[in-house]
Amino acid sequence: MQQPAYPDPVALDEALARLRQLPPLVTSWEVDALRGHLARAQNGEGFVLQGGDCAESFADCRPDVITNRLKVLLQMSLVLVHGLKSRVVRIGRFAGQYAKPRSADTETRGDVTLPSYRGDLVNAPEFDAAARAPDPQRLLEGHARSAMTVNFVRGLIDGGFADLHHPEYWDLDWVQHSPLAADYQRMVDTLGDSVRFMETLAGQPIGDFSRVEFFTSHEALLLHYEQAHTRQVPRKDGWYNLSTHFPWIGMRTADLDGAHVEYCRGIRNPVGIKVGPAMTADWVVALCRAINPHNEPGRLTLIHRMGADKIAGHLPGLIEAVRAAGCRVLWVCDPMHGNTISTPSGLKTRPFDRILAEVEQAFAIHKGCGSRLGGVHLELTGEDVTECTGGARNLSDIDLARAYRSTVDPRLNYEQALELAMKIVRVAD
After folding, report:
1. Where does Mn(2+) bind (predicted)?
2. Which of 173, 339, 417, 424 minimizes the number of CB atoms within 10 Å of its CB?
């Protein structure tokens, strides 16, 4: 399901053959390290922050855009570390999130029907026949853009950009004028004092404070692309998807007998599964057993995306069923996808209050069920967009027209994302 119909099979085979020869984007050691972090988070020894674009674009593979995405995730993780008193596992929803599922294979405008836009990995968003034709050369372009993003992020982190001694490096332009600026600065100052105190006791700099681990993720949607990156590694058993550290299965492709479940069943990466209100307890338990038959810790993450008005009626039963089946999973909340609405003008948006309400309910429901919410999965950007309403500046439907840039789904802007991190700390306390 959700695979494009390429008009030239020979060109597709040639592109895939070339893709299989290119260097991987991540290493098996990094994949195994992430699985270990997720296993500890399952045991309550960490919190997962997964965030980034709904759908990356090739045009946004720019140093300023990448740096701002990294900044906002680092800022959010700083808030979470400070407030939760816990390690944070940072997973970027980028460096490969170039494909998107669609509800229909075609789009019609007037008398013209064309293939749907499926993300830059497949075709282009412009509504004309040439742009919408699936192009296998885009698979190679996607690899190149992902490699540039991964390498730039690694360079920033290894060069000290993520140094806890200097969180001022992460400041975005808004910090000086935001209603949240004072609260955030107090956290930065407190953490800086703590770092200096610990180093004074140790009598030397603590190296772990000068860099952080950072992992990539994307939806394992376009199976041609994922298979071409799936490799065996010397002196290790099994197969690794080396296009990303953490692939996930979306709700539209979570059929037990579907190709996406079959594919993810066979790789060594930790895997996420999006879980929605239409999924039954039996279905979710069967997915757990299919993807993680040996019940390995850190292997499986269930990312529930219910909507603020449905989570109370659906999530408790799933938590109880998974626990009764003895399945070891990490529970993560995606409060974005179940809270999408349309404005009178037809723009898709997500009200901040509904996003926050789902997060608040998720924490309470897990606690009430004797479970634990181990992370959040967010669509966000480091740019000054106006795509989600509400938040500290109380953006309205009218504000959306000012800077609505997403080609697919609305994202939290940098200020709303940091505000949500601060609210999470208060809710989880």
Report:
1. 54, 379, 409
2. 173
